[in-house]
Amino acid sequence: MVFQATTSAPVNIACIKYWGKRDTSLILPTNSSLSVTLDQDHLRSTTTSRADPSFTSDRLWLNGKEEIIKDGGRMSTCIKEMKRLRKELVEDKDPNAPKLSTFSVHIASYNNFPTAAGLASSASGFAALVSSLAALYTLPSNPSTLSLIARQGSGSACRSLFGGFVAWEQGTQSTGLDSFAVQVAPESHWPTMHALICVVNDAKKGTSSTSGMQRTVETSPLLQHRIKHVVPKRMEDISKAILDKDFDTFARITMADSNQFHAVALDTSPPIFYMNDVSRAIIAVVEEYNRVAVEKTGKVKAAYTFDAGPNAVIYTEQENVKEIIEMIVKFFPQPPDSFKDPFGLQIGSGKVPEGFNENVAKVWEVGSVKGLIHTKIGDGPRKLGEEETLLNAEGLPKSLA
Amino acid sequence: MVFQATTSAPVNIACIKYWGKRDTSLILPTNSSLSVTLDQDHLRSTTTSRADPSFTSDRLWLNGKEEIIKDGGRMSTCIKEMKRLRKELVEDKDPNAPKLSTFSVHIASYNNFPTAAGLASSASGFAALVSSLAALYTLPSNPSTLSLIARQGSGSACRSLFGGFVAWEQGTQSTGLDSFAVQVAPESHWPTMHALICVVNDAKKGTSSTSGMQRTVETSPLLQHRIKHVVPKRMEDISKAILDKDFDTFARITMADSNQFHAVALDTSPPIFYMNDVSRAIIAVVEEYNRVAVEKTGKVKAAYTFDAGPNAVIYTEQENVKEIIEMIVKFFPQPPDSFKDPFGLQIGSGKVPEGFNENVAKVWEVGSVKGLIHTKIGDGPRKLGEEETLLNAEGLPKSLA
Q1: What does the alpha-carbon distance between residue B340 and residue B325 come to, in Å, rounded to a whole number?
Q2: Which chain B positions have a beta carbon within 8 Å of A203's beta carbon?
Q3: Nearest by CB to A260, which of B260, B267, B362?
Q4: What is the mean pLDDT of residues B158-184?
Q5: If phi over 0 gives left and psi between -120 and 50 gives alpha, with beta otherwise, what is residue A300?
Q6: B7 φ/ψ angles, rounded to the nearest 5 degrees
Q7: Which of residues 164-183 of A touch B (CB under 8 A)?
Q8: A12-45 pLDDT per residue, tens
């Protein structure tokens, strides 16, 4: 009998940013955060976990390449914690249950987006790892409980255990047991929430978020004010905006929080920069787009947000996506026929809406934005069929060629 | 008899940044600030003021081009205030004094640096305006008193009334009478304080500082924390560092405050960016230079600071200037023979100090940094001789050709 399970897990992009840990080994954050889960039809990590008494050690392959599981490292912690849950919740209660917690595991994981796209894969990756082990171990499927473990792999991974709009409650306990993800609203609540990812070319490798955020905690005089006096109200206000499907408020808070995250990064010593001139130009274009929209209707129509890198994610309602892509390709031209819209939108060579001041940005050279990904809000981890397994009969990763 | 006077006034570059007004018409700041006055041998505004009963209105020419003096505008306010001082302090006390306060004035002003250099000329310009009128009107020369008037022309102009290290005390009174400049230390206290200005090419016109700072006051959640809890201690600490000639502390505070100013600009809605990718690269190079210095001696050797634009000003001790210019031209090459050092330094084609990690920045194309200005700390406004007058016999600006 083969004990194995394959799951996929989504990427999430925060609207209220996580930046700073109060406990670096348990990965407990200095503030709560909130994200939108993106559709696995477009971006996902897929993971197969297999337990077998013949395996001599825990092993893991990422995109076909073996990663060393360091003792006491993040992957090791997640695997150990999942084995512990298997024992406590299944084996200790049912003497007939196979003792999978005593077997070593082989894990193969695959991201369907290139690492070079600059999209954080650790969130979807650790969410897929934890959910595949949960399926392998037939654990009661409470995503908040699993999020406690995914969090110890990569903080933001805890938010990828749910679809829709997801809050990571910072918690106050030193054990971290109250620092988990909860769903604010499922994807079905606001299915017209779409996202456009602008993949920005960047020569320079930025500061890793793990070391960057701790430098901010140690040196930024502004961070504590953000944590104590800004984020709590934003969490409350954006949660209400989501429940009310109030895009204008959702967008304003999302943009302000992206900018404030980059502001505290800049208030760090030495300062940390993730956005570059192309990122700044995308902000200028979206701000002008919103200025025109506010003039007409009083409400903004798009929200940019930037994580620890130069890529923009633009949230908008489905009805505005075509107009926004046209605008983006006007300033950031794409090679002919390079962009195929998965929703069937026909995009021309770019134009701006009426009343738009084109002087807010120059037309950049082809390749400045090196790719566009149009996606939408999506669901949480999915259990996949046996035919999707990433491991071959020997328990080694299948060739993906 | 011709009543006229010519003075020159210096540029100043803040170490603790002024950003935000509590009173926009009196130009009262939300926080105190502190600057270094740069040498007028290199950068200066020169102004001739003449009072004559034949003049029919106050007129002003900047670099040969007439500027309209708007009623209630900043130039008008400064001229009116200076006439009031003339009347109160001179004419009301001495019945024989000519009634210059009743005459119109012609004013010609000239900046010896190109506006295109992107250096703020309003500080030196208003300081020269006020000091030339003070000389014309034979006012008792108390720079702090004059700074009250220069402040109403352009906030940071008040700091150009002194040489050396200058604090602008924010004050608390609604009249603004306690919001003036004071000298922390004269230029003779620390004559080895040098400055290297890197003039950065920028396609895009940034947000004006006048409108930008008020947008920050209105929308940045972080600004109030900066004002109340960060700046007061920095003012105290940097003043002490100056008195102690403690370059390490001076530099660390200067860099942190530049970064924090740009952080609150970014925390504004819509966000304000003044630094571009070249500015960021200069920061990376100076930070690496300091990292190497700290490793060797425990102390930093250079301090970058950026005002409301992409240009860097690098403060350093005289002994390090050559090394720093060599390093800057390594990453930001200059056209052959374009840089002539006024202090006679012989600069090669660029090199970095031992132990310096060259991967912190790429080598930029020629023109990215379009000019270098090496200068040093300098004195306050200077009264110039009659031969320096900028007005001809008719009271019109002399041709400068």
Answers
A1: 12
A2: 362
A3: B267
A4: 98
A5: beta
A6: -135, 160
A7: none
A8: 999 999 999 999 999 999 999 999 999 999 999 9
Distance from CA of B227 to the nearest CA of A (A): 11
Task: Enter the ipTM.
Answer: 0.94
pLDDT digits over A300-351, tens only? 999 999 999 999 999 999 999 999 999 999 999 999 888 999 999 999 989 9
Look at B268 and A259 and tell me if their CB atoms are within 8 Å: yes
Residue B131's SS3 state is helix
Beta carbons of A259 and B267 less than 8 Å apart: yes
Name the residue with tokens 């430098």: A215
Closest partner residue to B277 (CB to CB) among A229, A259, A277 is A277
Do residues B263 and B255 make contact, with C-beta atoms less than 8 angstroms apart? no
What does the alpha-carbon distance between residue A285 and residue B82 come to, in Å, rounded to a whole number?
A: 45
Q: Would you call B273 an interface residue with chain A, using a CB distance cutoff of 8 Å? A: yes
Asked if A264 reaches chain B (Cβ–Cβ under 8 Å), the answer is yes
First-to-last alpha carbon distance for chain A, in angstroms, is 27
Q: What's the CA gap between A227 and B134, in Å, rounded?
A: 50
Q: What is the average pLDDT across A97-107?
A: 98
Residue A399's pLDDT band (boundaries 50, 70, 90)? confident
Q: How far is CA B277 from CA A237, A334, A337, B252, B324, in A?
A: 34, 22, 30, 22, 20
Residue A226 to residue B221, Cβ atoms within 8 A: yes
> What gap in Å lies between CA B232 and CA B228, rounded to an integer?
7
In the beta sheet, which residues pair with residue A109?
A47, A62
Query: Nearest-CA distance from B225 to chain A in Å?
Result: 7
Burial (CB count within 10 angstroms: exposed 0-12, middle 13-18, buried 19+), residue A96? exposed
- Closest-CA residue of B relative to A229 is B221
Average pLDDT score over chain A:
95
Which residues in chain A touch residue B283, judged by CB atoms under 8 angstroms apart? 270-271, 273
Which amino acid, one-letter code, is at A332? F
Q: Which of B262, B267, B169, B178 is nearest to B217 (CA)?
A: B267
B222–chain A Cβ distance below 8 A for any pair: yes
Residue B15, min C-alpha distance to chain A (Å): 15
DSSP, collapsed to helix, strand or coil, labels residue A48 as strand
Strand ranges (E), A140-200: 165-168, 181-185, 193-200
Question: A263: which chain B residues are within 8 Å (Cβ-Cβ)?
Answer: 222, 263-264, 266-267
What's the pLDDT band for B384 if we cut at 50, 70, 90? very high
For B89-134, what is each residue's pLDDT tens digit? 999 999 999 999 999 999 999 999 876 566 778 999 999 999 999 9
Shortest alpha-carbon distance between residue A278 and chain B (Å): 9
Which residues of chain A are within 8 Å of residue B249 when distances are taken between CB atoms?
Answer: none
pLDDT in tens, A166-192: 999 999 999 999 999 999 999 999 999
Which pTM value belongs to this model? 0.95
Cα–Cα dist A116/A199, whole Å: 9
| Nearest residue to B316 via CA among B242, B256, B247 | B247
Closest CA to B373 of B114, B41, B42, B15: B42
Tokens read off for B299: 């102390």
Please determine, for residue A270, whether its predicted confidence score (pLDDT) is greater than 60.
yes
